[in-house]
């Protein structure tokens, strides 16, 4: 990619992410079922 003058354009890095899970804490109100806690997916996400 180049600018209108033909100079190379700097690359820009954009970070977009989503939190899929929150660990339960007495203050945050999150709940994770026992089935999910024991699943391979949960271990992968940690």
Kindly describe this structure:
The chain is 22% helix and 0% strand. It contains two helices and no strands. The longest helix has 6 residues, at 40-45. 0% of the residues are buried. The mean pLDDT is 78.
Please tell me what the overall shape is.
Answer: elongated
Number of strands: 0
Individual helix count: 2
Distance between the terminal alpha carbons, to the nearest Å?
38 Å
Please specify the SSE layout and strand pairing.
Elements: H1 34-37, H2 40-45
Structural features:
46 residues, mainly alpha, 2 helices, 22% helix
Kindly summarize this structure in a few lines.
This protein is an all-alpha fold and about 45 residues long.
């Amino acid at each position: 990619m180049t600018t209108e003058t033909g100079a190379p354009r700097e690359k820009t890095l954009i970070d977009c992410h989503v939190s899929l899970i929150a660990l339960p804490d007495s203050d945050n109100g999150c709940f994770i079922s026992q089935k999910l806690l024991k699943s391979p997916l949960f271990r992968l996400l940690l």
